[in-house]
Specification:
10-stranded mixed sheet, globular
Length: about 240
């Protein structure tokens, strides 16, 4: 058995999520030598290298193989755009393979268990690209609001990944960081003593979980970071430190 001491340098594997149109894909395009895995057909206004539209897990696996073998010198970062579009494809494949109309028609949560199993397999493909081929991975996704029932207090709404809860848990446990990208706000009181959120015009990346959103990081980052074009290049330098 080999014992490793101290911090270990490795390429990052992260997920960046947030509302539509806030600039997640544009920010990912400013990472080091990126190639986009296109599942949404929404990258035509972004200056980046991208695959043709991917419509199956087979096309995804083939694209990853080509990037890591045939084009390994050309690209340092693999960007999946988006996780929720890929989940729709995984869902369709499961239903087609089992002659079902929806995941809910399986009963007893079996359909969602199959979806989670598919996600675990796909995430392992990205992990191989990350640890074996030294590729940085950025998984881009959208947000949704979910009700969180706190067993120690009142329930509240929370921004989370737009995917099934069990699959989201598998993804979050796999990545080094889960970043929530949003518009910065300040809370002010009106003349009637009503609290009102006011946008500052700044986009920020949240790196630590709060009651209103899900986030995490393994790099001791600041809780909130203003969005800059160098964000992922700076993160690459941090991930290479040991």
């Amino acid at each position: 058995m080999k014992i490793l001491k101290g911090r270990q340098a490795k390429p990052f594997l992260v997920c960046l999520y947030g509302p539509p149109g806030i600039g997640k894909s544009t920010l990912a395009s400013m990472s080091l030598k990126p190639i986009f895995l296109d599942f949404e057909n929404a990258l035509h206004r972004i200056n980046c290298d991208k695959t043709s539209l991917l419509t199956s897990t087979l096309s995804l696996k083939q694209a990853l193989g080509d990037i890591c073998n045939k084009h390994s010198e050309d690209y340092d970062t693999i960007v999946l755009d988006t996780v929720d579009a890929l989940e729709d494809i995984l869902t369709s494949e499961i239903c087609r393979e089992n002659n079902r109309e929806s995941l809910g028609s399986f009963g007893y949560g079996q359909g969602f268990d199959l979806l989670n199993k598919k996600w675990i397999e796909v995430l392992e493909w990205f992990s191989v690209c990350n640890r074996t081929y030294n590729k940085q991975i950025i998984l881009v996704g959208h947000d949704q609001i979910k009700r969180y029932e706190d067993p120690m207090g009142d329930g509240y709404d929370k921004f989370v990944l737009k995917m099934h809860a069990k699959s989201a848990l598998s993804l979050v446990s796999k990545v080094d960081c889960l970043f929530y990208m949003t518009m910065d706000k300040v809370i002010r009181k009106t003349e009637n003593n009503v609290r009102k959120a006011i946008g500052t015009g700044r986009r920020v990346i949240k790196t630590v979980e709060q009651p209103s959103f899900l986030a995490k990081n393994r790099y001791d980052l600041e809780d909130s970071i203003e969005v800059m074009g160098s964000f992922f290049k700076d993160l690459q330098k941090i991930s290479e430190e040991n």
